[in-house]
Amino acid sequence: MTPSTSGFALFETAIGRCAISWGDAGISGVHLPEASVSATRLRMLARHPELREVSPPPVVQRAIDRIITLLRGEGTDLGQIALDMRLVPAFHRRVYELARTIPPGKTLSYGEVAARVGSPGAARAVGQALGRNPFAIVVPCHRVLAAGGKPGGFSANGGVDTKLELLRIEQSQRSLFDGDGQLDFDPALAVETLSAADPKLARLIARIGPCRLQLRTTPSVFAALAESIVYQQLNGKAAATIFARVRALFPRARGALTAAQVLSASEAQLRGAGLSNAKYLALRDLAERYQSGSLPTLSQIQKLTDEAIIERLSEVRGVGRWTVEMLLMFRLGRPDVLPLDDYGVRKGFSIAFNTPELPAKAELEARARRWKPFRTVASWYLWRATDSL
Predict the structure, then answer these.
(1) Is the distance from CB of 265 to CB of 249 less than 8 angstroms?
(2) For the segment 84-125, what is each residue's pLDDT rounded down to a tens digit?
(3) Which of these, 13, 86, 106, 266, is most buried using a 10 Å CB contact count?
(4) What does the pLDDT average to over 29-52?
(5) Under a CB-based contact definition with an 8 Å cutoff, are residues 153 and 147 in contact?
(6) Out of 3.10.490.10, 1.10.3720.10, 1.10.10.10, 1.20.970.10, which CATH number does the structure's domain 1-178 have?
(7) In terms of Cα–Cα distance, which of 23, 32, 140, 131 is closest to 85?
């Protein structure tokens, strides 16, 4: 950045209109919403009377996009945002740098931070440093708690309630997309229920053995759908190669592919990575919808039914019912999804139930009424029936 690009801007997020200021050495401040937009603007003018409200340059806009993404409940990396800490006291700087290493959804105590910056016993000083944090969200002071897991103080508008809301947003993201691959329902109970409900399916289950279905983690709905779009109608190796080329367009980026990255790339770059025209248009549409906020956030998606999620996400170009069903099963861990159009499920049914032809959708759906509320697990076993072919 250069001095001529110094300024401040307000930007809309899921928790209200935040503010950001910048100068020649990086971001000089990030502020959470005040009680009103005018109050947020006045706070910026009081803190930085030398700055004017202007349109942010590209490097600042990228920082804004990442902050918006995080506050929407999606995984993103704020570690690359350059901060201007020239006026920050040395101890505060050590505290801020340590706080930036705490992953979203995780927390440390004031005492733990003090020990890690080489000042054991300075928990109160850590609290004071975080209370003066000028880089809200980017320096995630909300991830530092008092002893015993108590929230402690928070200087932003809304106080502790705002701190807890930020943690709730991040922890809901982790619970859905950054977990250990374990299901939220008991697969053993699902197997027991299915075996009792359908003797023919029970024989398949006995032959296959325990259910080993696990979730695939991903940092966001966008990342999961973007990968699905690239992989559509390609074998795994070819799709992985193309997806890696798309990722390689952003060599300085860390973490998953983001909507901001896709929108920053030209058609020639994305097509040059191997995307067909249809996939380029689908990926672009997905990114635009994501940036506009028309896709549900992670906290919203938790509250939606399977059919509502299918309806909302199928509005994206190139994303059909089957693609969303795979997201429901393998990313969200929904227990009662039956992909009626999936060839593997229908072929597995034919093998397990010894039918001369693949079942019609109506036949499969009728039989699957016995499998509720664990049709996801039943589908997994039908897929396994085809493994020996």
Answers:
(1) yes
(2) 999 999 999 999 999 999 887 788 999 999 999 999 989 999
(3) 13
(4) 90
(5) no
(6) 1.10.10.10
(7) 23
Q: Which CATH number fits domain 221-330: 3.30.420.10, 1.10.10.10, 1.10.340.30, 3.10.129.10?
A: 1.10.340.30
Query: Radius of gyration of the chain from Cα atoms?
Result: 25
How does pLDDT run across 178-236, given as a tens digit for each residue? 444 567 788 999 999 999 999 999 999 999 999 988 887 777 788 889 999 998 887 77
Catalytic positions, please? 342
Average pLDDT, the chain: 87
The pTM of the full predicted model, rounded to 2 decimals, is: 0.61
- Beta-carbon count within 10 A of 320 CB: 13
Q: In the structure encoding, which two tokens stand for residue 105, read together? A: 């959804």
The 3-state DSSP class for residue 218 equals: coil
Instruction: State how beta strands 7-13 and 16-23 pair.
Output: antiparallel
Asked whether the beta carbons of 37 and 58 are under 8 A apart, the reply is no
Residue type at position 27: I
Structure tokens at 304: 């939606």
Tokens, residue 340: 């009626």
Buried/exposed code over 105-128 (b: 16+ C-beta within 10 A; e: otherwise): bebbbbbbbbbbbeeeebbebbbe
Q: How confident is the model at residue 176 (pLDDT cuts 50, 70, 90)?
A: very low
